[in-house]
Amino acid sequence: MPPRRSTASKAAPKRERTTSSPLSDVPVTKPKPSSKAKGKANGSETKVAVKPKTALADDVKAGDEKLTEEPPKKKAKVAKGKQWPPAELSPDLHPPRNGYPIFELPESSSAKNGALTPTTKENRPMLLGAHVSIAGGPATALLRAGMAGANGLAMFTKSQRQWKSNPFEHEAIERFRDLMKSKEEGGLGYPPESILVHGSYLINLGNPDENKWNTSYDCFKDDIYRCHQLGIKLYNWHPGSTVGACTKEESFALIAKAINRVHKEVPEVVTVIENMANAGSNIVGTAFPELTAIIAQVEDKSRVRVCLDTCHLFAAGYDLRTPEAYAETMKKFDEEVGNGYLGGIHLNDSKADLAGNKDLHENIGLGKIGLTGFRCLMRDPVMSGIPIVLETPAPEKALEVGDLAIWMREIKLLYEIQGINDQDWETKKDEIEERWRKERDSINPPKEKGPKGKAKPAPKGKKKGKKEDSEEEDD
């Protein structure tokens, strides 16, 4: 669509007044004396006070000749001169979607997942994508997902590090809803079941401090209301921490209280609890029984799901590295939580060891989990129909500058290894990993190491705490 023209009108030319003018009933005034007039007070010059001009006075003076004309018609409100869609994200530039031809998943005896009812009967690949930026408005997230050739995506609905943000403008909501529609209807084909919103990092609904809990709840509710405005139905967030001020059981009750309350105050949106990494700490949701304990206290269980983060699982002691280990972990999830509650996946390899309690994300197949674990996931029928989202490391400020290269390549890689049969996989996996590592290093070279294998210190400035480091990996 071409950029809209400015509607600013030119000021009407000023006319000379005459006695035959329609304004001749206005008394003719004599020219104003000079601001300096000579007087004889005490034989010295005196200054005559002159009122300063004001914007209001100037406006009236400039427009008084139009008082008898008809008032101008009110012009339609237009955008602030920015092109839509942005030229660099135009759908004309989008590559074909990945995942075709569609891999035929094997038959499964496991219970089905908690996917939303699909909006189409068309057979689709796994809903694999990445967490993309909303810079320029929420609809740009859909455009960026299209640029990456993705079939699913994650996004924030506002700044993830601020309690409050400006409300959406009506135009932003309409743009997003239009792009969600199918391609036949003029959209990009990203229906609600393919989008997983990530909540603010600030929210902690497990904190027993009443004032802090209320602040978190307001942010939580605002996030979910924004999802409702955009037509998104899956909202994922970190459940929180006891902060050492109460038992975990008390935190479970506080989190369930927030879920029950928001379900009554905002319709439709499904609350998706994310599993966490730091087992044995104050963090809530690191083990499957903790997720079950929260869900047990939710009144409307049709509106609660779980998002499994693969790095968090591995850090908390759930192994994924081999077909046998992967199958055992997913069996535990079904037995202790239930496949019917599985609503989304965050795909991340781990820089840390199994049960290391460290949330350190790594690119797919290049960490301690390895490619085989992710191939198992991509061939698992339980993963069909839910958003599967990459949160892997990328070059600095990749989201801000629109650099999607690392995620575009990982999406292709995951669909590639999905289609390799078991016999060929054993002979090809090392070659594929070596090839991918070289590609990754060319896109996002590993940070240089200092003495004793430690990363070089960051530039002088604000020091980061452990929590901020972990959140940056999530981001």
Task: Describe it.
Its cofactor is Zn(2+). Residues 148-409 form the Xylose isomerase-like TIM barrel domain. It holds the Pfam family AP_endonuc_2. By secondary structure, the chain is an alpha/beta fold. It has a single domain (87-474), classed as Alpha-Beta Barrel (TIM Barrel). The chain has helices at 55-63, 139-147, 170-180, 210-230, 248-265, 288-296, 310-315, 323-336, 371-378, 398-401, 405-418, 422-443, 466-474; strands at residues 36-37, 46-47, 128-131, 152-155, 195-198, 234-237, 270-274, 304-309, 342-347, 349-350, 361-362, 388-390. Helix 9 (371-378) packs across helix 11. The longest helix is centred in the C-terminal third of the chain and has 22 residues, at 422-443. The two termini are 32 Å apart. Residues 1-71 and 458-475 have low confidence and may be disordered.
Radius of gyration: 30 Å
Instruction: Tell me which CATH architecture applies here.
Output: Alpha-Beta Barrel
Sheet with most strands: strand arrangement: 3-4-5-6-7-8-9-12
Low-confidence runs: 1-71, 458-475
Return the average pLDDT rounded to an integer: 84
Domain count, please report it.
1
Protein name: Apurinic-apyrimidinic endonuclease 1
Biased composition (Basic residues): 452-465
Pfam families: AP_endonuc_2 (PF01261)
Region (Disordered): 1-99, 432-475
